[in-house]
């Protein structure tokens, strides 16, 4: 059980990391961390899993390209804005409603469903991130909290229910639109840093699904 708790903590940390990466532009301080040894060690650990080896290597190559980029922070911030803060015609907007909503507008059914889940599990959305609840960063942050919720269950049946809730969430609230979002990022992100990041995210979600299905 202790091994599963530790593994769940690692899973949550990966989702929270991806959430922070897709929530806002990276600062110079953030970039220094990406260039550092801890990130190299972290990514090397992820890359030891066969399913993640190729996307991890692609992301590490993207980090290397960032390091050699003139005005790296400003250029990467411009990439972020062009992708995630623009329009559906020119960017890859990070909201589920833009891909599987019925109206083509923000705050469609996927956002409403996320708000209901926040209430159901009594998980608070981060106040400093004032975006619709179906933003990819919010969904990933929620998933990280859902994973930790499983660790807090002493009863075996409730623990299993919490694990199954993660499986349902990834299937019904992430994988329904994440591949479409990733495809748009691959098309729109000319430099490729964020495209590499979301490709890694998608590969991790697919790997995580296999783990959770094995828990059944």
TrEMBL record:
Q: Which UniProt keywords apply?
A: Chaperone, Cytoplasm
What is the annotated localization of this protein?
Answer: Cytoplasm
Keyword Cell inner membrane listed? The answer is no
Instruction: Kindly indicate whether the keyword Cytoplasm belongs to this entry.
Output: yes
SUPFAM superfamilies noted in UniProt: TorD-like
Q: Could you tell me which PANTHER family the record lists for this protein?
A: CHAPERONE PROTEIN TORD (PTHR34227:SF11), CHAPERONE PROTEIN YCDY (PTHR34227)
Sum up the protein's function in the record's words. Involved in the biogenesis of TorA. Acts on TorA before the insertion of the molybdenum cofactor and, as a result, probably favors a conformation of the apoenzyme that is competent for acquiring the cofactor.
What family does the entry list? Answer: Belongs to the TorD/DmsD family. TorD subfamily.
| Full protein name | Chaperone protein TorD
Please name the source species. Answer: Photobacterium sanguinicancri
């Amino acid at each position: 059980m202790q091994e599963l708790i530790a593994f769940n903590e690692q899973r949550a940390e990966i989702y929270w990391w991806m959430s922070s990466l897709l929530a806002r532009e990276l600062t110079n301080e953030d970039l220094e961390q990406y260039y550092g040894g801890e990130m190299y060690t972290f990514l090397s650990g992820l890359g030891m899993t066969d399913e993640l080896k190729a996307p991890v290597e692609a992301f590490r190559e993207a980090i290397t390209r960032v390091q050699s980029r003139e005005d790296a922070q400003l250029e990467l911030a411009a990439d972020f804005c062009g992708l995630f803060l623009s329009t559906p015609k020119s960017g890859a907007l990070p909201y589920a409603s833009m891909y599987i909503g019925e109206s083509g507008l923000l705050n469609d059914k996927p956002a409403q469903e996320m708000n209901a889940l926040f209430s159901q599990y009594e998980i608070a959305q981060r106040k400093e991130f004032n975006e619709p609840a179906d933003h990819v960063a919010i969904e990933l942050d929620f998933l990280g909290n859902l994973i930790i919720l499983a660790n807090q269950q002493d009863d075996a049946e409730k623990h299993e229910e919490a694990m199954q809730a993660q499986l349902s969430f990834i299937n019904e609230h992430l994988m329904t639109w994440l591949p479409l979002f990733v495809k748009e990022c691959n098309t729109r992100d000319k430099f490729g840093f964020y495209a590499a990041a979301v490709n890694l995210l998608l590969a991790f979600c697919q790997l995580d699904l296999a783990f959770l299905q094995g828990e059944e």
